[in-house]
Design a protein that fits this description.
160 residues; alpha+beta; GCC-box Binding Domain; 4 helices
Length: 160
């Protein structure tokens, strides 16, 4: 897919982040919204010329005429929000720094906090290393320590 073909098939509104079909084909009318939100991915997926694409990457291609060099980060942490002002082309490291919540493997439900020996520990990754931020009596204290370290050590993090 190149920018010319994309613009031939779709219109993109950078204010809303919505793609629309330019012509009627396969029972889909011109002007219809293109793309399907995939909850398991937390992204919008479009099928063009028998291939699937992530809408945020297509938005970059549509506006700049070339594919992003790295990873597209959703600044507001919402992978379904493809407004162009919400997208930035960043390294994988910066993209990971802008995570807003815990991973699916986190048992405490709080990002940067885990339980060890009955205590709550706060940890952050800096330059590929795990750094212990201390042990705490409750999740709130551990979370506060993590958030403070995240602001200090993760330049890619956009505050909620």
């Amino acid at each position: 897919m190149d920018a010319a073909r994309l613009r031939e098939l779709l219109d993109y509104d950078p204010e809303t982040g919505i793609f629309r079909r330019r012509r009627t084909a396969g029972g889909v009318k011109a002007g219809a919204i293109a793309g399907t939100p995939r909850k398991q991915l937390d992204y919008v997926v479009l099928s063009l010329d028998h291939k699937k694409y992530l809408a945020h990457r297509l938005a970059w291609l549509y506006i700049y005429g070339e594919w992003p060099q790295q990873h597209i980060d959703h600044i507001d942490h919402d992978g379904l929000n493809n407004r162009f002002a919400n997208l930035r082309d960043v390294s994988r490291s910066i993209n990971q720094q802008n995570r807003a919540g815990p991973t699916c493997r986190n048992r405490t439900g709080t990002q940067g906090v885990r339980e060890r020996d009955g205590k709550l520990c706060a940890e952050i990754r800096i330059d590929g290393r795990s750094v212990n931020l201390g042990r705490f009596q409750n999740k709130e204290q551990a979370s506060a320590a993590y958030r403070e370290a995240k602001q200090k050590y993760h330049p890619g993090f956009i505050k909620d």
